[in-house]
Amino acid sequence: MNIFEGLGYEVFGNSLLAWASGVALIVGAWIVLGIVRRVLRKRLAHLGERRGFKPVQIAAHTVAQTKGWFLLVAAVAIGSQLWVLGPSAQRLRTIVLTIGLLLQVGLWVTAALDISLRLRRELQMQEHPDAVAAMDVLGFVIRLVVWTIVILVILDNLGIEITALIAGLGIGGVAVALATQNILGDLFASLSIVLDKPFVVGDFLSIGEFLGNVEKVGIKTTRVRSLSGEQLIFSNNDLLNSRIRNFGRMFQRRVVFTLGVTYQTPAEKLRRIPTIIRDAVEAHEKVRFDRAHFQRYGDFALIFETVYFVLSPDYNHYMDIQQNVNLIIFERFAEEGIDFAYPTQTIHFAAEVGGAPHASMRT
């Protein structure tokens, strides 16, 4: 028997030459696929870094997530075409290739999602840093949906009746939902925060008696850094059920203040007070004067009310302006001889009337 006759010897329905050729093709295909993956990844990564084209960067990261075991499965599928296989072996090959492909597709999709969210996060940090928190929740939900679909399709290819499984999962899901309703409530509340955006990271909130800046919006909780330094943690569901004052959405501040002058102030000076206040307010930039009026007669003072707008949400800027307005008014009142009122008590005594002393008291 020569070597050629030996190569023709059949094992499991295929000659040794067919087995050797198939193995050689598998090894060759695995090497070639690995080289193609490496070259393609490097080319795409270089092109994405040089031109900054985000779809190319996403493609490079996705290609990098192509696993070696998947390349081996694909190489076996290619090399096994040289073999004559029985129905059972062909079905096994199809199932293995399908499961491998589904798992790899799941990895590709999640990898593309991760790099997309990361690139978008970097962009948002530069342009809109207050919108970053939404991406974590969306990423979690999308990954959950992708892998649920992958697992269901794999089970279907394995011959498992997924209709009954889905029905069972539905019944079990109701039981789980009842047992974990607080957790699910927080999860859906986080989705509501992401989609509706009542507040975002960086906003300054007033929640009941608590004040602070939003640091992170998570799947279950939202973290707020208070003015005194400690971190406040709120359940997302409880947070949305609260009355929230979002100062981060403030574009201007409406300022209302009152001052009182004594009843002994002459009428002509009373008429000049609104003009003095208006001049004090309009002496500043980024303000809009609204009104100043002699509002009412108080118990011990004549009350003037003033309204103006600071065209900036910054609290320190508002306080600087209010301080300067108060100082200017104080100086102008001193120049005009106008006295500020303060609580006083006046008692009037009268001479005797009809032999009896008579007195009156006024507060």
Describe the fold and architecture.
The structure is a single chain. With 363 residues, the chain is of the alpha+beta class. The chain folds into three domains: 1-127, no CATH class; 128-248, Roll (SH3 type barrels), CATH 2.30.30; 253-336, Alpha-Beta Plaits, CATH 3.30.70. The protein is 57% helix and 20% strand. The protein is built from eleven helices and twelve strands. The protein has helices at residues 3-7, 16-51, 54-64, 68-79, 87-127, 134-157, 162-179, 181-196, 236-240, 267-282, 315-336, and strands at 10-11, 14-15, 204-207, 210-217, 221-226, 231-235, 244-246, 253-261, 287-297, 302-310, 346-353, 356-362. A five-stranded antiparallel β-sheet has the order 6-5-4-3-7. A hairpin with a 2-residue loop joins strand 3 and strand 4. Helix 3 crosses helix 5, helix 4 (68-79) packs antiparallel against helix 5 and helix 5 packs antiparallel against helix 6. The radius of gyration is 39 Å and the shape is elongated. The protein starts with a helix and ends with a strand.
pLDDT < 50 stretches:
none
The rough form would be described as: elongated
- Rg, Cα atoms, Å: 39 Å
- What is the distance, rounded to the nearest whole angstrom, between the alpha carbons of the first and last residues? 133 Å
Topology:
Elements: H1 3-7, E1 10-11, E2 14-15, H2 16-51, H3 54-64, H4 68-79, H5 87-127, H6 134-157, H7 162-179, H8 181-196, E3 204-207, E4 210-217, E5 221-226, E6 231-235, H9 236-240, E7 244-246, E8 253-261, H10 267-282, E9 287-297, E10 302-310, H11 315-336, E11 346-353, E12 356-362
